[in-house]
């Protein structure tokens, strides 16, 4: 017999971030404990200057995730994804994928780039699945290697996904 008290439906809103969302982006990035955390100031600037190439997701009004990106100045048909974050309690339900597709569709980008370290299995899966779902090819190669960093950062591999 089915329970008479059905679970309430959740409402997901994926939209362009506003200036006030900068604080939520910072907290979400911080709470992942895996993203390189930038200053709260930088997330405010991001919401002001790169909002059109970024998204924030809210579930039932609560900030649940974000993607920051920008178009490459020398290649404006390429969307570079900088950070992807999903709050721990909302992971495993395809929110990152939903945000990524929304952003690609909204920007009309023909190509997408991102960088991912080898140990970030979730991001590697996300972008490979995105390329597969779009029927796009992807190329992966080292972009920033440890000797380039002053702090011993791991190699960031550039993913090039096209055509979208």
TrEMBL record:
Its EC number is 2.3.1.178. The keyword Acyltransferase applies. Pathway: Amine and polyamine biosynthesis; ectoine biosynthesis; L-ectoine from L-aspartate 4-semialdehyde: step 2/3. Residues 12-162 form the N-acetyltransferase domain. GO terms for biological process: ectoine biosynthetic process. The keyword Metal-binding does not apply. It comes from the Bacteria. One of its GO terms (molecular function) is diaminobutyrate acetyltransferase activity. It is an enzyme of class 2 (transferase). PROSITE patterns: GNAT. Gene3D superfamilies: 3.40.630.30. InterPro entries: Acyl_CoA_acyltransferase, Ectoine_EctA, GNAT_dom. Keywords: Acyltransferase, Transferase. Belongs to the acetyltransferase family. EctA subfamily. This is L-2,4-diaminobutyric acid acetyltransferase. It comes from Brevibacterium linens. The gene is ectA.
């Amino acid at each position: 017999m089915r329970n008479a008290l059905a679970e309430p439906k959740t409402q997901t809103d994926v939209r362009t971030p506003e200036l006030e969302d900068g604080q939520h982006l910072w907290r979400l990035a911080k709470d992942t404990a895996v993203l390189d955390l930038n200053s709260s100031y930088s997330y405010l600037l991001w919401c002001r200057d790169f909002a059109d190439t970024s998204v924030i997701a809210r579930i039932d009004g609560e900030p649940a995730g974000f993607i920051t990106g920008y178009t490459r100045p020398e290649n404006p048909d390429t969307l570079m994804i900088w950070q992807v974050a999903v709050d721990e309690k909302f992971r495993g339900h395809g929110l990152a994928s939903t945000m990524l597709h929304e952003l690609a569709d909204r920007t009309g980008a023909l190509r997408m780039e991102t960088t991912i370290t080898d140990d970030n299995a979730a991001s590697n899966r996300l972008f490979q699945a995105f390329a597969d779902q779009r029927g796009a090819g992807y190329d992966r190669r080292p972009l920033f290697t440890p000797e380039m960093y002053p702090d011993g950062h791991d190699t960031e591999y550039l993913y090039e996904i096209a055509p979208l």
